[in-house]
Amino acid sequence: MSFTLTQKILFKHCDPAGIVFYPRYFEMINDCTEAFFDTSLGHPFETLHLTGGVPTAQIKTDFKAPSRHGDILQIELRCTRLGRASLGLKFTGRSGQEIRFKAASVLVYVDKSGKPHSWPTALRTALAVEFKGDS
User: Fold this and answer.
1) In this structure, are residues 16 and 22 in contact, taking their beta carbons and an 8 Å threshold?
2) What is the pTM of this model?
């Protein structure tokens, strides 16, 4: 299964040349991740962060084509791996049929002390449902 977030490229995302300044893509990826946890999993960050968090432990991105002010991006998220305390994600950012970026990240569930910890049962169950859709 996949989750898609629509993002219009705003002035705040762009450099003086009018194209997306690459760190803004990382903000968009995080926005997509946060929306996925809220909308698809039913575990919004504002609740999740009361007992732990899901920092990004690794991220790799390939920039394929520039995005410009006013473009509409569809950012697709797919779960690729569910570990004891980790989650692999893949992202594809498109405008129309053109791929603008691809990214892969690993999130790690941590407790309040910042130490990796097994996924809480309810969250693991919700994540497992996402993987059933991909089988």
Assistant:
1) no
2) 0.94
Taking the C-alpha atoms of residue 19 and residue 11, their distance in angstroms, rounded to an integer, is 9
Mean pLDDT, the chain, as a whole number? 95
Q: What does the pLDDT read at residue 121?
A: 95
**Spatial CA neighbour of 6 closest among 102, 92, 77, 75:** 75
Q: What is the pLDDT of residues 81-135, one digit of tens each?
A: 999 999 999 999 999 999 999 999 999 999 999 999 999 999 999 999 887 755 4
CATH among 3.10.129.10, 3.40.50.300, 3.90.1150.10, 3.40.50.40 for 2-132: 3.10.129.10
pLDDT score, position 135: 41
What is the rounded end-to-end Cα distance, in angstroms, of the chain? 9
